[in-house]
Amino acid sequence: MSSLVEKSFIVMVLTIMLVCSSVLATKNPIQESKPCKRLVLYYHDTLFNGTDVANATSAAVANATGLDKEHKFGMLVVFNDPMTKDHHLLSPPVAKAQGFYFYDMKDAYTAWFAYTLVFNSSEHKGTLNIMGADLMNDETRDLSVVGGTGDFFMARGICTFRTDTFQGDFYFRLKMDIKLYECY
């Protein structure tokens, strides 16, 4: 009996040592308090209102369901929006945000985003992929950075939204604070 207990103890100790060594061997341990890269950008969305073809950067491709009047439940918007380093719409874009959002709740003003930031400048080349819920009534909202290419190869992190301005149904600007915790 004692031989069986000794063998079990040895197996348990070896298992613990194996798990600890694999955790310690992680290439880039995540340190939440200190991102490896940080970007602050402004997202400008100009929704097509039926007349402004030249300036529109997004369009509703599926109308709201009509189940509610206030929250646009079911409306799907596809966008190709400019990203700038400051809040001015006419500043030179440093990237394009390409993707979609849809309004996903009948009783609250929320949307779900999935998009790619496409960089092609002297400062950055590559993409960042971002997705998640935008709970618009909250002051700040966190979406996940789920990957990237080029300068952002395999990046992981958090993109914090803050509504910078909202002008009716056809223009809004978000301040995006992007913190990457996995950079290769």
From TrEMBL:
GO biological process, one term: phenylpropanoid biosynthetic process
Assembly: Homodimer.
GO cellular component: apoplast
Keywords, alphabetical: Apoplast, Secreted, Signal
A Pfam family assignment: Dirigent
UniProt entry tagged with the keyword Secreted: yes
PANTHER family: DIRIGENT PROTEIN, DIRIGENT PROTEIN 5
Subcellular location: Secreted, Extracellular space, Apoplast
InterPro entries associated with the record: Allene_oxi_cyc_Dirigent, Dirigent
Function (record text): Dirigent proteins impart stereoselectivity on the phenoxy radical-coupling reaction, yielding optically active lignans from two molecules of coniferyl alcohol in the biosynthesis of lignans, flavonolignans, and alkaloids and thus plays a central role in plant secondary metabolism.
Coiled coil stretches, renumbered: none
Cleaved signal peptide residues: 1-25
Main location: secreted
Recorded family membership: Belongs to the plant dirigent protein family.
Protein name in UniProt: Dirigent protein
Protein's organism: Rubus argutus
